[in-house]
Specification:
With about 550 residues, the protein is of the alpha/beta class. Among the domains are: about 20-210, ANL, N-terminal domain (Rossmann fold), CATH 3.40.50; about 450-540, ANL, C-terminal domain (GMP Synthetase, Chain A, domain 3), CATH 3.30.300.30. The structure holds adenosine-5'-diphosphate. Adenosine-5'-diphosphate binds near residues 336 and 342.
Length: about 550
């Protein structure tokens, strides 16, 4: 019988662990002069390089251990935008064996409070401009021992955050040399919570091994010709699913890194692309639509950009076509989730499909599976469906960079992972015989606007707290800039009257600003399914946009 229980002959290759610190060692040694540029509107650019990045990550690792007494496995949080200091945390924290927990500063306060406590963060590293966001929450963080503000001593803001210290003061005086500890490659390296389903946010705990394998897979799969990865500007934030792997990919390849101002004003972004001669950038479609509009209005062209990675939501065809045909930039639509590190598919057509005009059609698909990810689509009963481009089912994935469960959340793990070890993605798709994945719908009851999640269930629950409302149902409707925006259908209680302005006013201050629905539609009743649930599909299908 094939696959006997006894081990076959062991190979004779070295068992060097795949660990994140090797990336920064490699980059400092072989690409030491390659730059890392941090831009802030109104301030001079901060220019550094991989040699300095490694030295400062080393100083940080020494300070974490020697001054803050951080131990391997401890969680160290960041609440910060894209900067070189944030990247130093990527390497210093994971490199010493602790866990880098990146928090999305745009989340609504109760979610941040839940996440910090659930993760058991011991320290939070925070950008100076985000200090006022954390201050009112700090009393709810009994486990947090102190805060490190990502600035110089002289820039330290007056703050009520307990035990606050400037980053440069923390790391100053520690040596820039280090021999990183040898870690088991399955050691946890970073943690990121996803609010991409209903209920509490869920923690995805990456390992050194998963991170490196994901980086190798990415490096092997970008296809836009030589030099396309020379200079990378990750528009995607460092707090979104490891910035889609770019902070690891860049040092692996020796790519220059550019961190743009977080406001992502199209003029400033275009200027960053041109000034730094960016060749590759990645982000959600909203950003690229705004940039496109700016280019068209000002009749501009790119002089260096060659490859644009798009993901997080489906990019419109018009976006792909404009970049590919008019601007000569290769667009790659990639699909994945926080749970999947995140890359699962890349939108590189097979050679026979990579010619105009059909290339654009193929690129509107969410791509094809990367080697290392296994994928299936299943029906409601869990049976696998054929890859015929017609049968539509939920995507299940498995592989070495796919979450096997959620951090300290047995219930979410039980719901999210099948008995036979596949991750349920909540995305409904077809896959054709060539492997092109087309995302058709989302089974999870959430709306994605400009790359940020809105829980329709939270929105409904908060809305029905209005004294005149009987029922509410939120759906996501396509939007040209934001990909999706929420629309809320409401039913008044018998004998009561409600209108749109009253509901909007009620929601203001109760939900995050971007969750306020674009429209509130008062209806007599909501459509229900046979099992008595509100039929969102019927609502979506029957929805006509406002004139
Ligand atoms: P990320 O931070 O990478 O966007 P999330 O976990 O927040 O990850 O979101 C993952 C979800 O976003 C997917 O399950 C899917 O619904 C949606 N998504 C991601 N990429 C695409 C894509 N290329 N096309 C359509 N939907 C996408």
């Amino acid at each position: 019988m094939i696959g006997a229980a006894a081990p076959a002959l062991p190979g004779l290759m070295m068992d060097r662990s795949l660990q994140i610190s090797r990336l920064i060692d490699h980059a400092a040694l072989w690409h030491g002069e390659v730059e890392i540029v941090t831009q802030r509107t109104g301030l001079p650019d901060r220019r550094s390089n991989y040699r300095e990045l490694r030295a400062r990550s080393a100083q940080l690792a020494h300070a974490l251990a020697g001054r803050l007494h951080v131990r391997p496995g401890d969680r160290v949080a960041t609440f910060a935008w894209n900067t070189q200091r944030h990247l130093e945390l990527y390497y210093g924290v994971s490199g010493m064996g602790a866990v880098l927990h990146t928090i999305n500063p745009r989340l609504f306060a109760p979610q941040v409070a839940y996440i910090v406590n659930h993760a058991g963060d011991r320290f939070v590293f925070v950008d100076a401009d985000l200090v006022p966001v954390l201050e009112p929450l700090a009393a709810q963080f009994p486990g947090v021992e102190g805060y490190v503000v990502l600035c110089e001593e002289a820039e330290m803001p007056a703050t009520t955050l307990p035990n606050a210290i400037a980053y440069e003061t923390l790391i100053g005086g520690f040596p820039g040399e280090i021999e990183w500890p040898e870690l088991d490659e399955t050691t946890a390296s970073s943690l990121c919570y996803t609010s991409g389903t209903t209920g509490n946010p869920k923690g995805v705990l990456y390992s050194h091994r998963s991170t490196l394998l994901h980086t190798f897979a990415q490096a092997a799969s970008w296809q836009a010709g030589p030099g396309s990865q020379a200079t990378i500007l990750p528009v995607v934030p460092l707090f979104h699913a490891n910035a889609w792997g770019l902070p690891y990919l860049a040092p692996m390849q020796g790519s220059k890194l550019v961190f743009a101002d977080p406001h992502l004003d199209p003029a400033a972004l275009y200027d960053a692309f041109e000034r730094e001669q960016v060749t590759l950038s990645c982000g959600v479609p909203t950003i690229w639509l705004r940039l496109l509009e700016y280019l068209e209005r000002n009749d501009l062209r790119f002089s260096s950009l060659r490859l644009l990675g798009v993901g997080g939501t489906a990019p419109p065809r018009s976006l792909i076509e404009a970049f590919e045909v008019k601007y000569g930039v290769c667009v790659m639509n990639a699909w994945g989730m926080t749970e999947t590190s995140p890359a699962c598919t890349f939108g590189t057509p097979k050679p026979q499909h990579d010619v105009l005009p059909q290339r654009i059609d193929y690129k509107t698909h969410a791509g094809r599976c990367l080697f290392g990810v296994e994928m299936r689509i299943v029906d409601d009963a869990g049976a696998s469906l054929p890859f015929d481009g017609v049968a539509q089912g939920e995507i299940h994935v498995r592989g070495p960079w796919i979450a096997s469960g959620y951090f300290e959340d047995a219930e979410a793990t039980e719901r999210g992972v099948t008995d036979d070890g596949w991750l349920r993605t909540g995305d409904i798709a077809t896959i054709d015989a060539d492997g092109y994945v087309a995302i058709r719908d989302r089974a999870k009851d959430v709306i994605k606007s400009g790359g940020e999640w809105i829980s329709s269930i939270d929105l409904e629950n908060i809305a029905v707290a209005h004294p005149d409302l009987a029922e509410a149902a939120a759906i996501g409707v396509p939007h040209p800039t934001w990909s999706e925006r929420p629309v809320l259908f409401v039913v008044a209680k018998a004998g009561r009257h409600v209108d749109e302005p009253a509901i909007i006013a009620f929601l203001q201050g109760r939900v995050a600003k971007w969750s306020i629905p674009d429209r509130v539609i008062v209806v007599q009743e909501l459509p229900h399914t046979a099992t008595g649930k509100v039929s969102k599909r019927t609502l979506r299908e029957g929805y006509t946009p406002a004139p």
